[in-house]
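Hello,

Our lab assistant flagged a job as stuck in the queue for most of the afternoon. It eventually completed. Since we weren't sure the result was trustworthy after the delay, we are filing this so someone can double-check. Below is the sequence as submitted and the structure that was eventually returned. Let us know if re-running is recommended.
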Amino acid sequence: MALTAIFNNTGSRVVAKVGTGGTIQTNTPVTLKNTTLITRLDQCTDVDATNEQDGDVLVYNAALDKYIVKPLDLTTMSIQLDGGSF
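-- returned structure --
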């Protein structure tokens, strides 16, 4: 499966095609900047995965503008979770 991207930010049309082998073909030179391959959640800049353990969940912290890894503590929740009938 190939991916085709068309860029048109300066009035000129640039077509970039990424083939199945991972090579990029363009009709004009294209510069890719700030490209980082993220393969793990703790590599994301907006995730604090310090001291993660089995069973932890992601919780958004608006004050920090980050997702924080925290243990899921059902004893402190004031709601009942219903997973349904199977």
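-- support follow-up --
The delay was a queue issue, not a problem with the job. The result is valid. The CA atoms of residues 37 and 43 lie 9 Å apart. DSSP finds no helices and six strands in the chain.
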